[in-house]
Amino acid sequence: MYAPPAMTDSTAAPAPRGSGASEGLELVVFDGGSLRRLALPPRGEVTVGRGDEADLRVEEPSVSRVHARFRGGKEPTVEDLGSSNGTRVAGVALEAHVPHAIAADLVVVIGDLQVVVRERRAPNAPPPASLPQGSMSAVHRLVDLVAPSDLAVLVLGETGVGKEVIAHRIHERSKRKDGPLLFLNCAALPEQTLESELFGHEKGAFTGAAASKPGLLESADGGTVVLDEVGEMPLPVQAKLLRALDAGEITRLGAVKPRKIDVRVVAATNRDLGAMVEEGTFRADLLYRLDGMTIHVPPLRDRREEIRGLTEKFAGAVAVSEAALKKLEAHTWPGNVRELKKVVERAAVLAAGGAIDADHIVLRSASVAAASASAPLKTAAPLRDERERAEIEAIQEALASCNGNQTRAAEKLGIARRTLIEKLDRYGLPRPRKT
Prior knowledge:
disordered N terminus, six-stranded antiparallel β-sheet, single chain, alpha+beta
């Protein structure tokens, strides 16, 4: 995670009782349309409530005048102060006036207000070099806790781990579930097109703008916007996005009058945004704005217990043998869930109506898969190996697209059916069974 110092908000909060400024934890809330942060002191306490006497005063009507007390230090706690609507930690209601231990990446619900407890980092400190890994059940619990709030969420993880699935789950469990859910891949568009897609444009704003068009942020009003590959967003667009989110309004390209927007942002990336801030390629203030809560999605190799369930889901009505499952469980899956889905779907085609067996599971080597999923290898493989790999993938794609029909697949590849069979035998690829 990557957080600003103390508190960022247009409304200043009274200084908390106690002494010093905490290097440990901070509270993050989205209240009254603004994102607010307050550091827990290493000694002393912070109270949250609607009354003027609270250290962190909020507008949420379900919160009592002085609702809860947070204490920092080596053993931080939260305590319900006899509130009307209670305080919950991990879904469990707290007994009044009994301190409860808290830690980073925890959501405390006071009344209906979500208070995120998270690690506080220095303004220019990069995040930890390695991302913490955990089970998907822990990820889903965190999603379910943070989803009802309006906090921006930053979803981090390797390519193919299912960050889009997490974004869907956040939206479906939020109060915005009946509103739009719109996705934008920031890496797929040049700067001017990306800006137009985000903010919209008026007729004649640029060459080719034959008609006015609302942007993604405007079209998603009342809903959720998912910014995929946000680390690829150019700096000028980053600056405009930050202004739009802070002001709650956008101005279309070529327009003068701003338009109000009400959107929640979920940003996803496999990039190290903290390192990009250090390099000057990502704005620190935008990172603060997007990082209301960080959710790390672990790679598939760290949650192998899910491979069987995912395989059965992707295979549908097609049975999968134990030998095939064991082969899948032994693979390192550098392409993560996306790679598993593709492998299982191909295997189902090759099985041609029968059960998927081990010989229908065609896996690329870890080095080849990792290279294709990220950057090219520094040392190129021998040309023959590259050609063979490309030929194998072309054969697999053709068979899959033709539902295992070898004659049609051969026609698609531009070769004779006998040549296709010879190549299947040469590369040790299973022949699809006849249905």
